[in-house]
Amino acid sequence: MAMNTQGRPSRPVHAPDPGAYSETFSGSKGLDQAEPLIFERGDFDNCGVDLPEPKGLKTRLDGLERKSAIGLPGLSEPETMRHYVRLSRKNYAIDLGLYPLGSCTMKHNPRLNEKLARLPGLSDIHPMQPQSTVQGAFELIGELAHWLMTLTNTPCVSMSPKAGAHGELCGMMAIRAALDARGETGRRRVLVPESAHGTNPATAVQCGFVTDEIPADASGRVDMEVFKSKLGDDVAAIMLTNPNTCGLFERDIKEIADLIHEAGGYFYCDGANFNAIVGRVRPGDLGIDAMHINLHKTFSTPHGGGGPGSGPTVFSEALAPFVPVPYVIQDGETWAMVEHEQEARDLSGGEPFGRLVAFHGQMGMFTRALSYMMSHGSDGLRQVAEDAVLNANYILARLRGEMTAAFEGTCMHEALFDDTFLKDTGVSTLDFAKAMIDEGYHPMTMYFPLVVHGALLIEPTETESKAGLDRFCDTLLKLTEAARDGDTGRFLNAPVHAPAKRLDETRAARSPVLTWREDETAQAAE
After folding, report:
1. Spatial separation of the C-alpha atoms in residues 22 and 203, rounded to whole Å
2. What is the residue extent of each domain of the chain?
3. Of 3.90.1150.10, 3.30.457.10, 3.60.15.10, 3.30.470.20, which CATH number belongs to 378-510?
4. Where is this region: Disordered (predicted)?
5. Could you give the 3-state DSSP secondary structure of residue 288?
6. Mean pLDDT per 10-residue interval, the chain, length 526 residues
7. Which fold is adopted by the domain 114-370?
């Protein structure tokens, strides 16, 4: 037994079997603290703050006072803080490790962005303030709008949409308004590639269109012959993602744009993957008429977390007259917001399709995105795209010898694999994903896009180092080897090291328990 300088044992020579005490008395395991629901740890009879009842208080609620307990547990400030810190330790995050979700672009959010978004005058303004008191915010919105139009080479942008799907809605509503203005109300068919994000056909239907699916060819791109055969005088638009969801650039995009325009339709481009080409390609040069930009994907603002997000939509000259209100304009040294449709008609002669949101965009997201742009500059944004593509192709090159790439050749910003490498192992794509959790990684996007069987879609973004990518690839290669060697227990029982074990996901989806009740102890799906 090794001894330290005080003569105390520092480590045992023969460690006992950890299985004998793998379950602790407290439920905690080292720094992994056991944490019950806040309803289970709190006290419903007492408040976490010890304050005397106020004397001589006269209510001003005029009969609207609460007559029963609010039903929330009382905790002190330390208890509350510990509860949420402990919960946060059970979550995976981009600040914890590589987040390989394909199609989602989970990239690092620089702390500089957060510092600027919290500046007084930006973080504490209110949408109902007089316009004269928010001139700086208007200028920031105008500056961001300028750079979005510059990067896409488009003449107009709506900053209102709150997310990517909301941006799609904005674009497709403008397309419908333009068709109606032309008197072509019979154009209601929208062409959608089968590899599209699910929001694309959903948005089209929401706007009163019908969708017509276009299959992919053997290379994973739009089948041009089928596309040409579907063109007709009832086609309103095509909704195309480029680079597409298979991580491939649509090589025929210029021809697609020309053909849809010749047929009298519009080109809606899903800009979810703009991170792969920002600074390298201007979508306006490719012939797009509308494209949403996910600020939380391309320009680093936080992705998820309950929102709100931001999905500005750029427009071509053909659709600019139909852009919704509100939007900001500059008159000399003064900025103003155009709030009403009639005001927009008087100023520009346009015909906005209406108002998309109550208030204009999301200030925190705008501030973060502009901070990201200004700190990178044009050369830096170009390098973002180049490094994102380089990292994805490095992963593709390292893994394709053991895992099966879905398509031949190089990729853009994400590498796509199918499940052929797991054939006859008894391990499914889902099992493989669960085993990744035990290895300390969030799984990549699984089973999407649907055009690839058992898909595994990996997007590392530009912010991962070679050492980080190597560690990730080494882990996947070891898991692949274990599956082929018959170590199915590692996969079928996974995850065993996560706070929550494997669930009955079908039961969890069909019979979720969404409300805590003291007398209800059954747990969904376990």
Report:
1. 51
2. 114-370, 378-510
3. 3.90.1150.10
4. 1-28
5. coil
6. 54 49 73 86 83 83 85 89 91 90 90 93 90 94 97 96 93 97 96 91 96 95 97 97 95 97 97 96 97 93 70 97 94 91 89 90 91 96 97 98 96 97 96 95 94 96 95 97 95 90 86 78 49
7. Aspartate Aminotransferase; domain 2 (3.40.640)
